[in-house]
Amino acid sequence: MNRELRADASGEFHAASQAQPNIALVKYWGKRDAALNLPAVGSISITLDSLWTRTDVRFVPGQKGDRVSLNGRSDEAESRRITACLDLLRQRAAVDWGADVASRNNFPTAAGLASSASGFAALVHAGARALGLQLSDAEQSVLARRCSGSAARSIFGGYVEWAHGRLADGTDSVAQPLLAAESWPLRVAVAITSKAAKQVGSSEGMRRTAQTSPYQSAWVDTQEADLTTARNAILARDFEALALISEYSCLKMHALAMAAQPGLLYWNGATMECMHRVRALRQQGLPVFFTVDAGPQLKAVCEPSAIEEVKAALRDVPGVLDVLDTGLGAGARAISPDAVEA
Questions:
Q1: Which of 154, 181, 208 is the last residue of a domain?
Q2: Is the pTM of this model over 0.90?
Q3: Is 251 helix (H, G, I), strand (E, B) or coil?
Q4: Claim to verify: residue 121 and residue 143 sit in the same structural domain
């Protein structure tokens, strides 16, 4: 492994990175190995552009423990996850230094907008650079997956596929790009229907679903066919085919979770009304479809020509607090430390 370790003027080892959340079109739900964050099924996603996490990591020789700030506040549960992620990097670099970590999102956190994906992709990217670890994108994807499953996909931009893998050590459960964002520049309108953190996190929701939902085996057994359909639609730039498989995968995932004991209800009334509104627009001939992750926010994916009409329709839904507009974006990348607080 190549490594170039250099301290800055303060004697610290420092880097900052930005990553974007990704939205799964063919959903990831369930783990075959919780300790390694190995998924029960593969998935396909799009990386967003306007939403981002910016993370600054400083390793301080001699410091014991990590000091973590997320959106200007400390969170004990998130701090433990961040320390566990940094431990994977420290093990590779053969150091035991504590770190100061400051991370900021420009969108609601832990509310169904994949903040863990962008957050841990940015953390791995910045932490590896700060420690002089010259890791390939695939190696970063594997490490990001260990920290938060869907973070494996946010290392890359555009259209991304994450393989569920078959090896027990998880080294083949890695994401890879399918198509660059600029090769099919769709847009996404995100209807924010709640800014509160969801009551049941994704990890707990997946565990409960796998243990109690009667639909779990059917979910796993049918995923490969869904992946093939979505992959072919993306490579052919076939919007209608991608719309049908994406909504199908979304509703199938939520049906799976709703059938758990007790059932998982991530939607609210506004989420449901947004689904109806998007389907009505498509019936009128507008190129748009919806997807919803484990949370109440609806994402309407559309051709660029339709974005203004889609945003207006979603803003008109009672209970929608805001509508964000984003294109498809790049993967994790280096930024100036000043940009984290900008």
A1: 181
A2: yes
A3: helix
A4: yes
